[in-house]
Write a structure and sequence with these properties.
The protein has 12 helices and 12 strands. By secondary structure, the chain is α/β, with parallel strands linked by helices.
Length: about 400
């Protein structure tokens, strides 16, 4: 079997752009993959085209060797754009291998450890009352692991409310969010798992202050409180709070995970199969984390192809906590339609059953993709009250 074509579709799918990759073979078997790096899909598509130029004619079953060749085939190896492209191709190659052998992809990764993959829900609100309503709605529907988006910080320096969603003041946010989370914990009791996502918007001092404002046991995890370029900053923050950290959704290789795993700087691995290098690299990170008693908590905000690959990864590793999914009673608008993805994994309550279909178990309406175009989209460019820019 030989690769005959590598196609890339950076197109508007439903409510956002997705960078989908199709690898075709001379035996009529094809595979689908998806790249991360949201908002910069055209850059990733360019990298996919570079790799596709030398992958045609190659054996798609040699996934590990092809991964090494893609990673090592340029002097400037690595980086999120290149590994985003490698991720999508690697995912598609696993899909092909599973279909060719007539087995689910998790069988290629060592076989399944579980029959279903537990997920967590995400919610947020502009007021405490609405947030409590959303949390209770999730609990009523058996979503017992809940991530809350941090408050934007609804108070200006003059004490007035604001509605500018591009305005973000960290200090205003941490006071409100800490108060709300303490009250939420009191309302729901000790059983539900509660976490807060800060999307790396805080400094070390702000993150420490946030954690110290809440009683011990309020939060089960704090996700991405600060930027990740400097592990030493996380080491400092680790000394200032006992709240477990969930870090790694932006990491583009096992090497980026190295200090966070080896130095105990994270307690949950927020690995993204579409960013880190596909299933080949994900399995290596998972094994490394297992050796340090750290569970995976995969980042999965993209589409059904990413979801399918993440389900197979989750099935094939022993050290797994919960998988992100952006569909729940509070986020239904995030899910792409069956028109675009006629075969996709179906959520049952708050978990995905582990499938037994060959490959990834997802198919894409390619004709639909061909009829779409790319639409430039930018993540919010957040600013502070003094006019300076801050992290999204």
């Amino acid at each position: 079997m030989k690769i005959t074509e590598v196609k890339v579709y950076p197109v508007w799918v439903g409510h956002r752009n997705q960078c989908l990759v199709k690898v075709e073979t001379d035996e009529g078997i094809h595979g689908w993959g998806e790249a991360g790096v949201s908002g910069r899909e055209l850059a990733v598509a360019g990298a996919v085209n570079h790799y596709g130029a030398f992958l045609v004619g190659r054996d798609p079953m040699q996934r590990g060797a092809l991964w090494q060749e893609m990673y090592r085939s340029q002097y400037f190896e690595g980086g999120r754009i290149l590994t985003g492209a490698i991720s999508a191709i690697d995912m598609a190659l696993h899909d092909i291998a599973g279909k060719a052998l007539g087995v689910p992809v998790y069988e290629l990764l060592g076989g399944k450890h579980r029959d279903f993959v537990p997920c967590f829900a995400t919610t947020g609100a502009r007021t405490y009352e609405k947030l409590l309503e959303n949390v209770n709605l999730l609990l009523e529907n058996n979503w017992n692991v809940i991530r809350v988006g941090a408050a934007q910080g609804p108070i200006t320096e003059k004490g007035a409310r604001y509605d500018d969603r591009t305005l973000y003041e960290p200090r205003a946010s941490i006071g409100v969010t800490a108060d709300w989370m303490e009250r939420i914990r009191e309302a729901v009791g000790p059983a539900p798992v509660l976490g807060v996502e800060y999307h790396h918007r805080l400094s070390v001092a702000e993150a420490a202050s946030f954690c110290q404002r809440m009683p011990t046991g309020t939060l089960d995890f704090l996700e991405e409180p600060i930027r990740d370029e400097t592990p030493e900053a996380y080491a400092t923050l680790r000394q200032m709070t006992g709240v477990p950290f969930a870090v790694g959704e932006e990491f583009a290789s096992k090497w980026q995970f190295l200090p966070y795993i080896e130095r105990g700087l994270t307690n949950f691995i927020r690995l993204d199969v579409c960013n880190v290098g596909g299933l080949t690299e994900s399995k290596k990170v998972a094994g490394w984390a297992e050796a340090h008693y750290i569970d995976l908590m995969p980042h999965n905000p993209l589409g059904p192809v990413c979801t399918a690959a993440t389900v197979h990864l989750a099935a094939a590793v022993p050290n797994f906590a919960w998988m992100e999914v952006r569909i729940s009673p509070t986020e239904r608008s995030e899910y792409p339609s069956a028109e675009i993805f006629p075969l996709q994994h179906k959520l049952e309550g708050s978990r995905f059953p582990v499938p037994n279909t060959p490959g990834l178990g997802v198919e894409v309406n390619e004709e639909y993709l061909k009829a779409q175009s790319f639409k430039y989209w930018e993540a919010p460019h957040l600013h502070r009250m003094d006019g300076s820019y801050t992290n999204w």
